[in-house]
Amino acid sequence: MASQTWKTARVDTRRLSFAILPVAAAAGLGGLGARRAPEIYQQLEKPAWAPPASLFGPLWSTLYVLIAAAGWRLSPAASRRTRVLHLTQLALNAAWPATFFEIRDKRASLVIIALLDISLGLEVALLRREDRSSAALLVPYLAWSGFATALNAAVAEPQAAAPANTTSRN
Hints:
This protein is mainly alpha-helical. It contains seven helices and no strands.
């Protein structure tokens, strides 16, 4: 009986760790911070364009997969600055739910999500030069983050989201 030589695939644990661990940490910490999200979201004075609560779970699951895929791609070759931005936006992502849903500070959460938008936008801009595929993987996340920022602003200042009162006082 001839012996077979099995070649095993070697997993790059450093790269896998960079792709998975920060995303898992952001999702885990975000999940802890959002424990009361369904109850609080239902009670918010939201604009008519606010999505239903049932959208958030599937959406974030998809976004986290895309973020991890981008992390996998950018890990070996991206600049240090890009990798730092990647970890920064994930840290801000993790901080937002606790600030909004647990601490219930809508203005502070607006600052956090605005900083998330900036760091994510810079990351995408740098990745366009370094790895266009990684940049493309993050575009849906950037779009959602921009939408979430508008929603956060609308609930932070509900009177700004409401139509102006046009009745006259005659």
